[in-house]
Amino acid sequence: MSPGFIISAFAVVLIAFANTAARAQDTKEKAASVMEEDGKHFDAEGNPTFNIENGVVDWYTFSGYRRYHSDCHVCHGPDALGSSYAPALTESMKNIDYGTFLSIVAEGRKSTVGGRESIMPAFGDNKNVYCYLDDLYIYLRARAVGAAPRGRPPKRADKPEAATAYEASCMGG
């Protein structure tokens, strides 16, 4: 192997790592809403995000809070702060992009941490989760970047017609 090949391979690894590190940590600035469509907010990269103004959360953040506390808090703890069963999503969501989140929740995941196997079950067949993946992502993203406080949001925006239509379509109603 030539030294040039080794240096080139090392450079490719460094570039891949730098790109991953550059997009890995989510922040309030990266999560900022730059576009709204039918009551749903999106960041500059087109990912779903939250909008919290004067203590009022958008519908999708509120819905995500409700869905999280319906299906996820049993393992991941109240307010996504973790438990002895599963990690704090307020931390892990800082480094999980939208596509990865969808994949993990839909397909599940096995990992070994500190010699202990951890299993995230697949929820791709559970309409009570699957139909609200964006809502869950939005809520957890808001919690991870410190935009949404602990507990039930005291004020929320009204449910957009688009959310009602999508919910009926997804749930089969």
From TrEMBL:
Q: Which UniProt keywords apply?
A: Plasmid, Signal
Q: Which residues form a coiled coil?
A: none
Which positions make up the signal peptide? 1-24
Domain of life per record: Bacteria
One GO molecular function term? Answer: heme binding
Descriptive protein name: Cytochrome c-553I (Cytochrome c553I)
Q: Which organism is it from?
A: Sinorhizobium sojae CCBAU 05684
